[in-house]
Amino acid sequence: MLLIPCPWCGPRDEIEFRYGGEAHIARPTDPDALDDRAWAEYLFMRANPKGVFAERWMHSAGCRCWFNLLRDTVSHRILAAYRIGDTPPARDTPS
Amino acid sequence: MTQPFRLPRGGQIDRERVLRFRFDGREYEGHPGDTLASALLANGVRLVGRSFKYHRPRGIFSAGPEEPSALVQLETGAVTEPNRRATEIGLYDGLRAASQHAWPSLTADFGALVGGIAPLLPAGFYYKTFMQPPALWSRLWEPLLRHMAGLGRAPRLPDPSRYDKHHAHCDVLVVGGGPAGLAAALAAGKSGARVILADSDAAFGGALLRRAYRIGDREGLEWSAATLAELGTMSDVRLMPATTVLGHYDDNYLIATEEVGDRRSAAPKVGLPRQRLWHIRARRVVLATGAQERLLVFADNDRPGIMLASAVETYVKRYAVAPARRAVLFANNDDGYVAAAALDRAGVRVAAIVDPRDAPGLTALRSVEPIPIFAGYAVTATEGRGALRRVWLSPFPAADRSRRGRSIAIPCDLLAVSGGWNPVLHLYAQAQGRLRFDEALTAFVPDGAEAAVRCVGAAAGHFGLGQCLADGATAGAHAALLCGFGTGEAPPMPKVEDEEEAAPGPLSLLGSHHIARRAFVDLHNDVTAADIALAAREGFEAIEHVKRYTTLGMGTDQGKTGNLPGFALLAATIGRSVGETGATTFRPPYVPVAYGLLAGRERGMLADPVRLTPIHDWHVAAGAVFEDVGQWKRPRYYPRSGEDMAAAVRRECLAARDRVALLDASTLGKIEVSGPDAGRFLDRIYINRWQGLPVGQCRYGIMCRDDGMVFDDGVGTRLAQARFFITTTTGNAAAVLDWLEEWLQTEWPDLEVFCTSVTEQWANATLVGPRAREVLATLTPGLALSRADFPFMRMREVEIVGIPARIFRVSFSGELSYEINVPADYGLTLWQRLIAAGEPYGITSYGTEAMHVLRAEKGYIIVGQETDGSVTPTDLGLGGLVARDKECLGRRSLDRRDTARPDRKQLVGLLPENPEEVLPEGAQLVATRDRAPSAASGLDPGMIGHVTSSYFGARIGRSFALALVENGRARDGEIVWVSLLGQVVPARICQPVFYDPEGRRRDG
Questions:
Q1: Do residue B3 and residue B141 come from a single domain?
Q2: What is the ipTM of this complex?
């Protein structure tokens, strides 16, 4: 069970959280300007990297705030947690 | 004489007290401190069970959690447990245990008589023997195998024991309380860190319990007692004996089971749970899990009386049991010799030591003088039906011609075997630790250091006692330092000289025997050397494949004693090194766990929360039959005497259509959406318009996901300029709140909107029917109720019988209807007053079943019933609701090529040709009567849709259904076929409104 550092509440067990998929996918401001392919790209296509991944989580049994994590999908190490709207930290794995 | 094999003195047992227990019906005696295994051995019981596959007689092979053979059925009735390891059951007075999978009895076992079927059970037999003819599988093979195989019997009664859960946090968790673990706990504890020390054994000490080590100038056990006493004085150190760590998960989250009542009696003392499940989050973990001895592979190496050398030591020293009269030791390493010396000291005649190495270590040889040594020999066969009688030795390796010599027979009733040691790395591997094969140690050892986990002592392949102590102290101090405690400097440990050992012998004795059918690699799963060789011949080379093909290391044993010999055999067969072949995955749990422990107290009423409406007690008194809707209990119908469900539902429906009826709709999800931007927000969430909704008015709305699929629906009402009250589907309330919050937080943080769940703040009594207005009027004399004064889709805030209420004129039945919301605490009062006021009008309470019939007759959808996440508003015939001139979730997707397709599955009505036939919901629809696809015509009579709702309509007097059908609207009037078990039934497609399509009745 991951120990997730909620940016508002501090480290809490994974069971308190809900997963929200890939982070930093902005909803297009003018969907009508996109053709079907571009719209489908936004709707359905998600990265599935082996390595560092920026993903959304929600502290559903806590403060109910959404936030972002940088997590290594291989080692499950969490490299950073940051609030919605914050710039993602550099993705280099700290040694 | 009782306990004929008990030594006259020694052992950590309480000889003053006698415990009586029964095994397979016979009564025996033992002492506190015994395990079931040690007590059986003390009484001379050698044959304890039959093996899993071949029903071979088996005895006690080990003295710990690695026991592969002595699995027993503990106790009877509700508390019975299968597959308990006799080596792990602390003896208590009155214990009852029985051998497993022996039928009709342990000594005359049917399975063993038909041992002739063994050739039918080679590696992969599941895939081979029983393939043809198919009929034989279900009639013969499966029943036969189920009867013969299997491990024990599951209890048939509910477990009466209590189990608890405990969450704990610590800085340093030390797993294993042997010398290394004790040293680590001491070092960490001295620094002031919060420490937990857990050991699966009821006593700490590890190897000190079985061997007479000296630590400094003390006996090993004196040192451990002193260390434990010192740890006991530290307030932040928690000592947890009898606690087995089962699994190691992400970020040092570990699960452990603590035996609380188990070791004392079958029925634990009142107030104590039987076991506790510990959830431990540790900042650092020190794994001092020790090592387990390996077996050696030779023909008939499974007879009762063949036992690990370390287990022999344990029985002699810890339990004062001599498990034999005349013993032979077969060891490929120096460490095994200690068992021979221990037996000798205990007065057991050791007839021979057999060692495949030509040059055993000198210290080892000196320690066992004058026992005859057969160096360069291997045990190649054994004899004895129910118990070992004789072993045969041959020179090793047999392939070496110069070594050919006569085999030698030695009578004995105990063969101690030692194939070297495996560090116990289950938890380390579960924590993503990498393993490396160490050729010098012939064992997998931890490779590199995981940041927050460290193996010490024997678990790290450091088998010397002095090394274990130093290792533990260093790791304990370092772990504490990393948590911010102490200096990181290890406290001084007493001096221990580790003896030099000669290199261990080969893991695989391939060549010392024919690859015999009965040379067992995995005693637990009855996997033989021949099985491994066969798998290799058949092309299975990847270790994970061989595991599954042969069942090596599977099941509850997880390959504790036999895995590595199996890997070595495979490696030798296919000409690779063990390191190249690799190891299989270690899976939690480390030892079997009772389901009851995992469930804890979350069973029965506590398994899942039950949500009741404020009116619940009235429903119970009225004899309602309830159904579960999410976690809610909702009345389904209220049968009167002599009524079945159909009759009750019909009566309730007709009351709502013809007179007046009352529904408890309190479970409806309710959310207040407030803030200056609430209207703008709802415009983006719902497919229709909300900003312009006047205060006091209601509107039906549909929410779509951004892919255009219907997510939820409900009625919203504008309470004030910046305050909306929306309702959701009962089972979807939490998901809708999540959805609203997600978009507000992640995409539109600029909107000033607040969402509050108020589902449980309001009770809802829905008054329905043509006489509803008259009933309501008696309770709200000040409120103008005429069609013009209180029109459809309006809300009024009034007092009703002195209770503040919101009355919504909305309808989910098609009839004149008032949804009366009052604060939850007044719900029951309101309900009772409505029932009383309605009495002269024949008011009838109705449940969810009638509610469904009423809404379906009107073609009103239920999200989750008519929709399944692949249905758009257009598919439901509600495309007209979509406001095309504003942006909202899902709108763009409705124009996607696939979503805009005209021939998608669409909501239609269905009238079965037989008006009495109620189609089953979920039934598949086909376009043509002949279900079998016709290859010639190329026609595909495949499924074109399914029934989503189906009832007998009380007012319309016939059966009807709603369905999703491909291109359904264009098929109006066509016949489709409903595919049921054994028959195909015709039904006609129609408009999905069956009653009052003009909507005349909603105003009463």
A1: yes
A2: 0.96
What is the full DSSP assignment across B46-113? Answer: ---EE-TTT--EE----SSTT-SS-EEEES-GGG-EEEEEGGG-B--TT-EEEESS-SB-SSSBHHHH
Residue B43 domain-assigned (yes or no): yes
Q: Which CATH number fits domain A3-83: 3.90.550.10, 1.10.3720.10, 3.30.2270.10, 3.30.70.2730?
A: 3.30.2270.10
Domain membership of residue B750 as a residue range: 669-760
What ranges do the domains of chain A cover? 3-83
Chain A residues with at least one Cβ partner in B under 8 Å:
1-3, 13-14, 18, 20, 26-27, 31-32, 34, 36, 39-40, 43-44, 56, 58, 60, 64-66, 75-76, 84-85
B377 with B450, same domain?
Answer: no
Per-residue pLDDT tens for B827-838? Answer: 999 999 999 999
Check if the beta carbon of residue B390 is closer than 8 Å to that of residue B412: yes
Q: Which of A65, A66, A72, A74 to mutate to test the interface with B (most CBs of B within 10 A)?
A: A66
Contacts of B742 in chain A (CB under 8 A): 20, 58, 66
Nearest neighbour of A66 by CB, restricted to B250, B281, B746: B746
Closest by Cβ to B747, choosing from A27, A60, A75: A27
Q: Is A31–B891 a contact, with Cβ atoms under 8 angstroms apart?
A: yes
Q: Which of B158-162, B623-627, B850-854 has the lowest mean pLDDT?
A: B158-162
Q: Is residue B821 part of a domain?
A: no
Q: Which residues are bridge partners to B220 per DSSP?
A: none
Number of domains in chain B: 6
Q: Provide the β-strand partners of residue B550.
A: none
pLDDT in tens, B166-219: 999 999 999 999 999 999 999 999 999 999 999 999 999 999 999 999 999 999
pTM listed for this prediction: 0.89
Type and span of the H or E element at B350: strand B349-355
Are residues B892 and A58, on separate chains, in Cβ contact within 8 Å?
A: no
B223 CB-near residues (< 8 Å, 6+ apart): B208, B215, B216, B494
- What CATH number does the domain containing B344 carry? 3.50.50.60
| Binary contact (B738, A18; C-beta < 8 A) | yes
- Residue where one domain finishes, among candidates B364, B394, B419: B419
DSSP B470-499: HHHHHHHHHHHHHTT-S-SPPPP----PPP
